[in-house]
Design goal:
This protein is α/β, with parallel strands linked by helices. The strands form six sheets. The protein has an eight-stranded parallel beta sheet. Strand 10, helix 10 and strand 11 (about 285-290) form a beta-alpha-beta unit. The N and C termini lie far apart (about 75 Å). The structure holds glutamine and zinc ion. The site of glutamine has 13 residues, from loops. It catalyses: 5-methyltetrahydropteroyltri-L-glutamate + L-homocysteine = tetrahydropteroyltri-L-glutamate + L-methionine.
């Protein structure tokens, strides 16, 4: 019998119960027992779901109160000194203080850093390593959960972040080679595995996704050493790799002295045969064959064609799984009533993906006739998707085919454009602007809710938004900003707002995916050719411009961000979808220009995030991504000024691509890096204008004039003053008005001080 299992499931629950339980606990509304009780209930439900789907083992340890990396960190007793952990067990309040700086009990302290988990939109808490960091088993959560599963009659497969991946993700606090800590780390992993074996756990899954990255030889060698130590510690070990091809790590992974290997055959289908060839004759191969990162129904017939020979070679040593943890997709499609009924049958969420695995296993074990009904249903859904006139639109294809190379090039080089723009816009030295959004107040959110629920009419809603624009414009004029924005009051989210107005995008009713902690996002689904039936932002921008003599900046989300923060169709390369979005944006930009908007910003905060994990694949991505941006933005006259904005980015290794965007102005987040991010621009002799953020918008603190002026002087030491702008790090939507006004007043004062000194 072919074993099916999952690397992990979403944690939040169908009604986001975990979110509400966590937030209730953090606020002090409920106690610890209520939170832990709710967590136990969710785990039980998720194990039942696996058993019902036919999983041989239920996965234990994928559930987390905040993050699975933090779970491992706490388990290893790696608590930074500022949390004043007395030793013993790491209690949940210490755990929550590490994640978010505060908890119902214990002194607040700086939270640990949070960053994206590989190329996903899930964020993990970064472990901090002190020099000579020690390790000690400090949390029994995994053993308790195993006992919980066993008490419910389940066979448990325990899962945890593997030692090399955990160490790789950790940040040393000081200059030392963290790999030297491995020898201290392994005994605690050994202890954990031994305890699991003592509980009768047959398998432990150790997640090592760094095997899909470029690894230095020392790290590759460390894999062999580590697993040699751990192999005899307890249960059979399955090393799980995902998010990409193994490439030069393939033989290392295949030959590790463990009982099983999981490979991601969705992102690297071409490697499956090679993995088989290298696999020792006793090892289990878990083939990640349905996409754990995306929501499309799998082509089961095609998979069976590929898996049948694998099954013939491996027999019962073949296991089937999703490509990675199902954490990255919503929990259940069936009860979702919000999604377009034509598109719904084309999709599969976590529960449906487990059912797909069951169908595959059944057909492999007993022949396709044994799974005839499920296979027929899949065939019908896929055929409908392929034939749908909403997926393939001749006019979109024809337009893309007609794109000429000059369409993605501005008419003149930056230097002559800059002269036209200066003459038209009449901006001072060190012009001031903001990144787009102003506070999304409770009143704005209430108006949107009321409008969506039909409690207020469209006209009343639009008038409420116009009132917000009037307010934002009046504030900016009073403060003396140079390039104004309308404030984005009418946007709930920078992707959803545009997706909802574009053909080819669909939205789910309840398709929540965890982003970090208790925060979830509901990514749209790009299912078909993208087209813009009507202008999306022009009326708002034109209204805002009518209120002021200063230039009003139009505000759009760029093609890469529109892709990366959505579930993207899998039936054509991302590049083509990006170009379709770019053409829709190109029309919007030209409409804005024709309506008298002279400055247009195209936000690309996800530009870097979408970059492939492997360096060898980056060049091709950066080339098409930059081309998509230019295809969107290059159709304007020389005097129209194109801005872009990026945050939370390192620029060193992508600076050539940033220059390749040929935006007239780029605004970036730099305040927290003390302008060091600008070194990449200076070193490259970046030719266009830059607005390095002078204050961090994540804090309500009002930045001082002198501090911002000092930062800009640092900037001017790297980039000529004539090419510098003064602006915050990012949009202000999460701030309140009083601190926003105070901060911007100081920012304008800082710019004036700089001009006076120039
Ligand atoms: N224009 C957007 C805003 O100001 C940009 C947001 C972002 O960079 N993430 O909110
Ligand atoms: Zn930003």
């Amino acid at each position: 019998m072919t074993v099916i299992h999952t690397l992990g499931l979403p944690r939040m629950g169908a009604g986001r119960e975990l979110k509400w339980a966590l937030e209730g606990y953090w606020k002090g509304d409920t106690d610890r027992d209520a939170l832990l009780g709710r967590a136990r209930e969710l785990r039980a439900r998720h194990w039942d779901m696996q058993v019902a789907a036919g999983c041989r083992y239920v996965t234990v340890g994928d559930f987390s109160l905040y993050d699975q990396v933090l779970d491992m960190t706490a388990r290893l007793g790696v608590v930074p000194a500022r949390f004043a952990w007395p030793g013993g067990e790491v209690d949940i309040d210490t755990y929550f203080r590490m994640a978010r700086g505060r908890a119902p009990r214990g002194e607040p302290a700086f939270a640990c850093a949070m960053t994206k988990w590989f190329d996903t939109n899930y964020h993990y808490i970064v472990p901090e390593l002190a020099p000579g960091q020690g390790f000690v088993l400090a949390r029994d959560d995994l053993f308790d959960q195993v006992a919980e599963a066993q008490a419910l009659g389940h066979a448990a497969k325990a899962v945890m972040v593997g030692p090399l991946t955990w160490l790789w993700l950790a940040r040393p606090q000081g200059a030392f080679d963290k790999l030297e800590l491995l020898d201290g780390l392994l005994p605690v992993y050994g202890q954990i595995l031994a305890r699991l074996a003592g509980q009768g756990v047959a398998w432990a899954q150790l997640d090592e996704p760094i095997l899909a990255l470029d690894l230095a030889p020392a790290w590759r060698a460390a894999f062999e050493r580590a697993y040699h130590v751990l192999q005899s510690a307890g249960p059979k070990l399955m090393v799980a790799t995902y998010f990409g091809a193994l490439e030069d790590n393939l033989t290392t992974a295949a030959k590790l002295p463990v009982a099983g290997l999981h490979v991601d055959a969705v992102s690297a289908p071409e490697e499956l045969v090679q993995a088989l060839d290298w696999l020792p004759a006793t090892k289990v191969l878990s083939v990640g064959c349905v996409d754990g990162r995306n929501v499309w129904r799998a082509d089961l017939d095609a998979l069976l064609d590929r898996l049948a020979p694998v099954r013939a070679r491996l027999g019962e040593r073949l296991w089937l799984a999703p490509s990675c943890s199902l954490l990255h997709v919503p929990l259940e499609l069936a009860p979702d009533t919000g999604i377009d009924p034509e598109i719904k049958p084309w999709l599969a969420f976590a529960r449906e993906k487990l059912a797909e695995l069951a169908t595959l296993a059944q057909a492999l074990d007993h022949g396709r006739e044994a799974a005839a009904a499920a296979l027929a249903e899949t065939r019908a859904a896929l055929a409908a998707r392929r034939a749908s006139a909403r997926v393939h639109r001749a006019e979109v294809g024809a337009r893309l085919a007609a794109v000429r190379p000059e369409d993605s090039r501005r008419r003149s080089p930056y230097a002559s454009r800059a002269a036209c723009q200066r003459a038209w816009l009449q901006l001072p030295l060190y012009p001031t602007t903001t990144i787009g959004s102003f506070p999304q107040t409770a009143a704005i959110r209430a108006a949107r809710r009321d409008f969506k629920a039909g409690r207020i009419a469209r006209a009343a809603y639009e008038e409420a938004m116009r009132a917000e624009i009037r307010h934002a414009v009046a504030v900016q004029e009073r403060l003396g900003l140079d390039v104004l924005v309308h404030g984005e009051a009418e946007r709930n989210d920078m992707v959803e707002y545009f997706g909802a107005q574009l053909d080819g995008y669909a939205f789910t009713g309840n398709g929540w995916v965890q982003s970090y902690g208790s925060r979830c996002v509901k990514p749209p689904v790009i299912y078909g050719d993208v087209a813009r039936p009507a202008a999306m932002t022009v009326a708002w921008s034109v209204y805002a411009q009518s209120l002021t003599g200063k230039p009003m900046k139009g505000m759009l989300t760029g093609p890469i961000t529109m892709l990366k923060w959505a579930f993207v169709r899998d039936d054509q390369p991302w590049r083509l979808t990006a170009f379709q979005i770019a053409l829709a944006l190109r029309d919007e930009i030209r409409d804005l220009e024709a309506a008298g908007i002279g400055v247009i910003q195209v936000d690309e905060p996800a530009f870097r995030e979408a970059m492939p994990l492997r360096s060898g694949r980056r060049k091709a991505y950066l080339a098409w991504a930059a081309e998509a941006f230019r295809l969107a933005s290059a159709g304007v006259a020389d005097r129209t000024q194109i801005h872009t904005h990026m945050c939370y980015s390192e620029f060193n290794d992508i600076i050539a691509a940033i220059a390749d965007l040929d935006a007239d102005v780029i605004t970036i987040e730099t305040a927290r890096s003390n302008m060091e991010l600008l070194d990449a621009f200076a070193g490259f002799a970046y030719p266009n204008e830059i607005g390095p953020g002078v204050y961090d918008i994540h804090s309500p603190n009002v930045p001082e004039v002198a501090a911002m002026a000092r930062l800009m002087e640092k900037a001017a030491a790297r980039v000529p003053a004539e090419r510098l702008w003064v602006n915050p790090d990012c949009g202000l939507k999460t701030r309140a008005w009083p601190e926003t006004e105070a901060a911007l007043a100081n920012m304008v004062a800082a710019a004036r001080r700089l001009r006076a000194r120039a």
